[in-house]
């Protein structure tokens, strides 16, 4: 009985074998789809989310020309109809050239008007892609390092007590070091965490030379070309400093940006609203003193135009 | 019983073996596509396609990982993968077809052939009948073909905003060198 069964199975096998060959599935000789270790692309559409850096760097030989503009307060004491909801004023304008030295390394220079005590800023920046998320999740996260150095070219204040009194050149310098830890969750949603450190050589009384902050940013794609972008920073300013500034009538707020990102081929256009008046990390992280709740948020736009220079 | 088993195994193996000798494969097939539009020409190439051909049954097979196509402009490459071909969702283009002509591919020679089969791009399968050339020489085979793909046929949507940059019909060139599968 048992033997009969075995014979039957074997006969069946023999019949199947030629049948399988006759079907001639040539694709089978290349095996199953090989494990895909390809890097995940386009976690963010641009090298910046709104105020925050994204994990993206430029491709080798690509030049990114960027303009960021922040208008004045829409509401509050300085907004409203008299300033055409802030359009009459600009709090910061940044013009930048960034270039992909390799696919992982980007370098850039920018000029920003600056907002707050320091203005007329020149920035040099570097960005390095340390880890790329892979499609097979062997590397679940993307990690990019960002750093910049900013110098103010403004005239020194003659008042020796002022923050912008520069007794030596180094007083003009501020720095940022940041890691962008990002992940693309499926097709539509990307998230980034940004542990950040800002160092300012010269700060006001009871202000902090060194400040840590944690940023979070996200992108949600509506369609192939339109996405919602958000970023938010929590600066870790100590209580004593906060309390002192409160007595001076200055309150610090966490910078929050909300925007719509529109991609049109080589352009990425952001229309956004932020309470931060500045565009550079060195300022918007430690020095945001304007609040969404008091109408002190503004229109802003980021425009990025990419040129492929390398071959 | 034991004898029966080994006999069967032998038969099975020989069945597979015989078939394998008719099969030629290529692991570095070249695919190039070219699109000419008013604003700019777009060109991309990959050498990471795979292909196989069975000289007995005259069946052919091609498969290309979409994200291996290299563009001159990396931003274009990103758009190609992200917006048009959606290579995360549809990682491969695949063709399964058959040579229609009465040719003996075990003999040396250059054969202009017509191949018919199903091409799957962007998750959409469409039947194609295209001309190509098969060259058999010293136990090796070369295949080359050039044909047009209408992007709309494969549900690849080009927004009106960039319609001047991307052609509606893309010219595809294929070249593969095959070795017998041992």
TrEMBL record, chain B:
InterPro entries: Lipid/polyisoprenoid-bd_YceI, TTHA0802/YceI-like_sf. It comes from the Bacteria. Residues 1-20 form the signal peptide. Residues 52-176 form the Lipid/polyisoprenoid-binding YceI-like domain. Gene3D superfamilies: Lipid/polyisoprenoid-binding, YceI-like (2.40.128.110). Keywords: Signal. PANTHER family: PROTEIN YCEI. This is YceI family protein.
């Amino acid at each position: 009985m048992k033997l009969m069964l075995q014979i039957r199975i074997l006969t069946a096998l023999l019949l199947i074998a030629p049948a399988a060959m006759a079907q001639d599935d040539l694709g089978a000789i290349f095996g199953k789809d090989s494990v895909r270790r390809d890097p995940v692309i386009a976690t963010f559409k641009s090298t910046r989310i709104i105020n925050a850096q994204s994990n993206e760097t430029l491709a080798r030989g690509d030049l990114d020309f960027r303009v960021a503009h922040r208008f004045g307060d829409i509401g509050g004491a300085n907004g409203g109809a008299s300033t055409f909801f802030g359009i009459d004023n600009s709090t910061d304008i940044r013009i930048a050239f960034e270039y992909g030295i390799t696919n992982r390394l980007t370098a850039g220079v920018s000029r920003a008007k600056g907002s707050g005590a320091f203005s007329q800023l020149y920035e040099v920046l570097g960005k390095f892609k340390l880890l790329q998320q892979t499609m097979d999740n062997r590397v679940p996260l993307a990690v990019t390092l960002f750093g910049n150095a900013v110098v103010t070219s403004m005239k020194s204040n003659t008042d020796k007590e002022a923050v912008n009194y520069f007794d030596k050149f180094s007083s003009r310098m501020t720095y940022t070091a940041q890691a962008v830890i990002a992940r693309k969750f499926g097709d539509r949603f990307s998230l980034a965490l940004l542990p950040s450190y800002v160092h300012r050589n010269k700060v006001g009384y009871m202000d902090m030379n060194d400040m840590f902050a944690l940023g979070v940013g996200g992108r949600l794609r509506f369609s192939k070309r339109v996405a919602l972008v958000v970023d938010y920073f929590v600066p870790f300013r100590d209580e004593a400093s906060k309390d002192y500034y409160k007595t001076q009538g200055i309150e610090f707020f966490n910078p929050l940006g909300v925007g719509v990102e529109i991609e049109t081929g080589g352009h990425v256009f952001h229309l956004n609203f932020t309470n931060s008046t500045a565009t550079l990390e060195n300022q918007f992280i430690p020095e945001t003193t304007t609040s969404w709740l008091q109408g002190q948020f503004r229109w802003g736009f980021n425009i990025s135009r990419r040129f492929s220079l390398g071959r | 019983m034991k004898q029966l088993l080994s006999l069967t195994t032998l038969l099975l193996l020989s069945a597979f073996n015989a078939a394998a000798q008719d099969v030629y494969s290529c692991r570095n097939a070249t695919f190039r596509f070219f699109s000419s539009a008013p604003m700019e020409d777009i060109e991309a190439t990959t050498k990471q396609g795979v292909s196989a051909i069975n000289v007995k049954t005259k069946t052919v097979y091609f498969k290309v990982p979409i994200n291996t196509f290299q563009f001159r402009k990396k931003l274009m490459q990103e758009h190609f993968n992200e917006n048009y071909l959606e290579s995360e969702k549809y990682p491969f283009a695949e063709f399964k077809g058959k040579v229609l002509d009465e040719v003996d591919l075990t003999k040396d020679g250059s054969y202009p052939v017509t191949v018919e089969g199903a091409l799957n791009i962007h998750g959409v399968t469409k039947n194609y009948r295209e001309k190509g050339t098969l060259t058999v020489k010293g136990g090796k085979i070369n295949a080359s073909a050039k044909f047009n793909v209408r992007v709309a046929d494969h549900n690849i949507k080009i927004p009106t905003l960039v319609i001047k940059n991307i052609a509606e019909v893309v010219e595809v060139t294929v070249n593969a060198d095959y070795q017998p599968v041992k």
